[in-house]
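Readers of this paper often ask what the protein records in our data store actually look like. The remainder of this section carries one protein's record, kept here as part of the documentation.

:::
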Amino acid sequence: QVMLVESGVVLVQSGGSLTLSCAASRLTSIYWTIGWFRQAPGKEREGISAISLSDNSTYYIDSVKGRLTISRDHAKDTVYLQMNNLEPEDTAVYYCAASLEIEDPPPKAVIADDYSYWGHGIQVTVSS
C-alpha cells in the first residue's frame, strides 16, 4: 500500500515562503506521478503542480507559475513544493497524491481523478 505524508511549515506571513514535503513509501515503479493539490475554504480541490518520477518533468497551473517549484529527492523518496511570495489567498489544505495512470511525461494537467493515493493533507495559513 502506497503511503504519502505531508509535512512542513504551516503558518507564514504574506509575502513569505515555505516548502512542503511529501514523503512517499512503496513507490516501487518509476512511472509514478506525484501531484500537489489544495483546497481553500469554500472552494473545490484544485490541482496545482505535478512531477513525473520517470524523468523529473514538471507541470504547473498558470496561476502559480513563477511562484511554485516542485522537486524531488530520489534518495529520500520525497517530493517538495516550494512556494514563494505567498498571499492570504494561498491559505488552504495542501495534499500530495500519487498516480500511475499518467502516461507520456511531462504531466499536462493535475486532475484529482487520475490519482489513486492521497496524503491526509496539511493546513497552510498565510496571514496578512
Remarks:
- The longest strand covers residues 18-25.
- The chain has no helices and eleven strands.
